[in-house]
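#lab-general

N.A. 3:47 PM
ok so I finally got the sequence cleaned up, no stray characters, all 70 residues accounted for. can someone with queue access submit it? mine expired

B.Y. 3:52 PM
send it over

N.A. 3:53 PM
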Amino acid sequence: MSISQETIAGFRRQVEREWLDNIAPFWSRYAPDEEYGGFRGWITNDLQIDEQAEKGIVLNSRILWTFAQA
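B.Y. 4:20 PM
back already:
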């Protein structure tokens, strides 16, 4: 089965919209740690931030890399 270029282009547009409308704004709003720098170490599903949570180098690196790539 072959996937058309039109289907691929439509999927790409959907992924781009998801990134621009949901994913990037969420991480830009909740992840940065304005007080200590870097990104927060823990955010619960109901958006409660644990100010005392340790920060992991892997998490901070992945968030930074993702935004750099975008």
